Amino acid sequence: MKHLCILLPLIALFSVAMAQTPESDIEQAIATGNADKLLPYFGATVDLRILDVENVYGNSQAQVLINNFFVNNPPNSFVLAHKKTRTDNSFFIGTYNSRTGTFRISVFLKTENDKSRISQILIQNSEALDNGRF
């Protein structure tokens, strides 16, 4: 019985630590180039910038555009560079490597009705960033 009292809290703590967060699900979707897995995290609209094209899109159109980016730039890796989480919003920035180039992807989330929703995604060419074009 004594071991059970020690073991149960440890199991509960481990379960909470292993729970997927919206941010980790989104990071994984980007790392695997899976726009379908991003859709449940989109708000009604998404402020989307892919390279030189920027606009506010409905969630379905944003999914199509991001999917086109992933098809044209299949992922090799996605490495998280910075992450900040707050109660009402969060963001993360990472480096997306593809055989076609290296890109910086920034994702901004807002909390709506107790759920994290993607409000903005920026996909920028790392070479252009290094040369001061953005």
In words, what does this structure look like?
The protein is globular. It contains four helices and six strands. It has helices spanning 2-18, 22-32, 59-72, 126-130, and strands at residues 42-50, 53-58, 75-85, 89-98, 101-112, 115-125. The chain starts with a helix and ends with a helix. It is α+β, with helices and mostly antiparallel strands and 134 residues long. Residues 12-18 have low confidence and may be disordered. Strands 2-1-6-5-4-3 form a six-stranded mixed β-sheet.
What secondary-structure arrangement, pairings included, does this model have?
Blueprint: H1 2-18, H2 22-32, E1 42-50, E2 53-58, H3 59-72, E3 75-85, E4 89-98, E5 101-112, E6 115-125, H4 126-130
Parallel strand pairs: 1-6
Antiparallel strand pairs: 1-2, 3-4, 4-5, 5-6
In DSSP terms, counting alpha (H) and pi (I) runs of 4 or more, how many helices? 4
Proportion in helices: 25-40%
Mean pLDDT: 86
The largest beta-sheet arranges its strands as 2-1-6-5-4-3
Low-confidence stretches: 12-18
What's the total number of strands? Answer: 6
Reported for the largest beta sheet, the result is: 6 strands, mixed
Structural class: alpha+beta
